[in-house]
Amino acid sequence: MKHIEGEFKGVNDIQIYFQGWLPENKPKGIVLIVHAFAEHSGRYKNIVNKLIPLNYAIYAHDLRGHGKSEGLKNYVDSMDQFVEDLKKFYDIIKEKSAKLPVFMLGHSFGSLIIVYFTKKYEILLNGIIIAAMGTRTGGKSNGFMRVIAKIFSKLTPRISVNPGLNPELLSHDLGVIEDYKNDPLVNYKKRCRTP
Predict the structure, then answer these.
(1) What is the C-alpha to C-alpha distance for residues 110 and 39, in angstroms, rounded to an integer?
(2) E strand or H helix at 43, and its extent?
(3) Beta carbons of 132 and 107 less than 8 angstroms apart
(4) pTM for the full model?
(5) Rounded to whole angstroms, how far apart are CA atoms 110 and 37?
(6) Confidence of residue 25 (pLDDT cuts 50, 70, 90)
(7) Phi first, then psi: what are they for 147, rounded to 5°?
(8) pLDDT above 70 as % of the chain
(9) Which CATH number fits domain 2-133: 3.40.190.10, 1.20.1050.10, 3.40.50.1820, 1.10.510.10?
(10) Mean pLDDT for the chain?
(11) How many Cβ atoms are within 10 Å of 39's Cβ, its own excluded?
């Protein structure tokens, strides 16, 4: 397996980091991974290790404000920025491998980005893989807190808060949990306005 790294200019000239893993033989397809909120492209090596032996080329970028990409941590002005960054990344990869089918794999928040992407660019993809996309909230929310959140979203959208994410809920694999807790590129503090 060959590992590559690089950068490209995203929307508003934000520097976006990416990496790729290429099989020894000619790939039969491309899988673009879109990572979860507060994570980065390097957290998906388990998937890479499963797909490389099947002769897929794997690419992933760090979303703006995540991992090694530029931007205010965990903040974006609109979902369109994530979608258009992904489109630029798709174009770069497709230019190198025009005839190969392209699939996107999204985890959690990455799944949501892919859904937005397919609404606009569905014809470009041969398939999507959606994992752990939240389709409903985890219980009844506090009405007072919704009002406060809406106010802070308008007044101080870039302020960072700890949402109380429990890393133990991310996986049954204790090694994955420990890696997540100790990963310096993971930043699970949210901004008052997140997509």
Answers:
(1) 10
(2) none
(3) yes
(4) 0.82
(5) 7
(6) very high
(7) -65, -45
(8) 79
(9) 3.40.50.1820
(10) 86
(11) 24
